[in-house]
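Worked example 3. Consider a protein that binds TUI.
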Amino acid sequence: MKTRITELLGCQYPIIQGGMAWVAEHTLAAAVSNAGGIGLIAGGNAPIDYLRDQIRKCKEKTDKPFGVNIMLMSPNADDLAQLVIDEGVKVVTTGAGSPGKYIPAWKQAGVKVIPVIPSVALAKRMEKAGADAVVAEGTESGGHIGEITTMCLVPQVVDALEIPVIAAGGIADGRGMAAAFMFGAEGVQIGTRFLASEECRIHPTFKELIIKAKDTDSVVTGRYTGHPCRNIKTKFSKKLANGERDGSLTPDEFEKLTLGSLRKAVQDGNLEEGSFLCGAIAGMINDVKPCSEIVREIVEQAEKLMHNS
Ligand code: TUI
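Given these inputs, the predicted complex is written out as structure tokens:
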């Protein structure tokens, strides 16, 4: 399990927890880091004081390296980008945009920079801009997604870059991890599996939706707004999908309905107005476990499979 990613990040296993907005707070991040992976705290749309507090609390719970995900569409992205430097955070991942303008300052401060990208073109741009690694995120992922499947994207990004590649999208067990390694990835980013962990503090309704989900229970909404998002099928996401399909919701009306809907899902378990973002692999997840067990089982299964091949 030693790869350029474990070396770069100083962790035991090349498993990074997804930087899920509203979900990934310090309790989850510290648990994943303590399990030997890299936990992430999501900046999302949060204000600077919230993220500072989360980073400090995470430091109290773990002496292992952990990171922060900066969601680049956030109006606070500039402040959060500076905060990670001021707080001495070791690893930054980014999503929903190009982090090019922040990379020189992060590098100068010794922060390891790992943009999440949905295409080969963006991956190449990030390598040129000085990224240390990339997360190649397939369309199986939860939340804001690109078009290309993990199976097609990862080997093409691996071929195009010199820096190490972390695979994401549809990976929730050791088989997924081993498959990613066969494509040339040197690490995996895992989100949905950690939603169903004991340390993840989402509303119980959210965990129940993940546990009960079957293979066909995720849906992509919002393609026509330019921000396609994968969520679990609920009354609300079906209403959005139908409105998009039959034209009864304009893109503006769609955006208004989804404003604040991540918080409503994560904190309130609100099935009428909440967006329960999750990956297409939710159907394979049937139980809630501690992060340490999740990480151990994934690593053991992947190692067994890779030794046999
Ligand atoms: O960012 C994610 N997943 C997310 S962010 C999020 S919060 C949100 N809510 C509503 C709308 C948008 C965001 C929920 N899930 N994953 C990484 C990711 N990055 N997926 C796609 C991209 C991406 C897209 C465009 C990365 C770079 C990019 O660059 C465009 C350009 O040319 O600059």
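Take a moment to read the result before moving on. The chain has a mean pLDDT of 97. The pocket of TUI is lined by residues 21, 71, 73, 95-98, 116-118, 122, 137, 143-146, 227, 229, 277 (CB under 6 Å).
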